[in-house]
Amino acid sequence: AAASLSTASSDAYYCCGIEEGGEWVTEVTTQNFDSGTWTTGTNANQALATNEGRGNQTGFMICGGFSSTTAFPALDDAYSWNGSAWTTHSSVMGEVRAIGFAMSGNDAGGFINGGQQGSGGTQQDTSESFDSTPTFTTEASSDYGGQGTLGSGNSDTDFIRTGGYGTPAAAYNLETESYSGGAWTCESQDYPFSNPYGYGGSCASGRTSFLCGSNVNSTDDAIAKFDGSTWADAGDMNYKHTTQHGEGGDSADAMVVSGDPDANKAELYDGDSFTTTGELVATNGLATGGCGGNS
What we know:
By secondary structure, the protein is mainly beta. The chain contains no helices and 26 strands.
């Protein structure tokens, strides 16, 4: 499925799986963003954590994660939003997947890579594409991956990833890989900051428009952008968004939201600088369910 980029500043969609402080929410909490203001959305059908989600207000897809009762194994369920209602798709993914994985798309189709099978489970470098049914299809595995993998793009035709931990070795990965035509290519430049790792902290509309945060520590605001050949510092964020923040859009027009410690904060990126915008409706915390500005 082809992806269409919605402007992050006018059509963003945010899902939260765990509240600030680590408490479970009763459902996946959603909020909509239009021109500086957040409004409460329609909650998804299942309480989840460390799942991933992409899309916008008219079409969104959530994949994997944990339920509120078990951390292993992770789920192989998906939840689609068509602009008016959520639909549960049970056991449709090819593999269970959680704890930070890369994802593109929306309810019409997309692509996922990396993650982990559950707390203490197998680290993954595997990939899947999905269509609007949704039917999930196994795709080529990346060379790197594991929990905390970051990435997005234009479905399975122009996808990019970096980071992760645990495969091929028990270490943080700095390598960057792009996917097109059924094959992965390792890019010549590695991610420039230490520890690119997170649960949703990246966005892209393709290989040449990748924005990706770093989980250096809770006092750092490191974030970088990739133009298809070179990584560069994307500038200083106004708030501290670390491991569980969400990003939507791409490196020219992005939304960065939530995370620890500034769980209710959001800001916009225009390709050069970050500008603060309206706060979330409530301080309901860590963006483990994903953020959409690219769909």
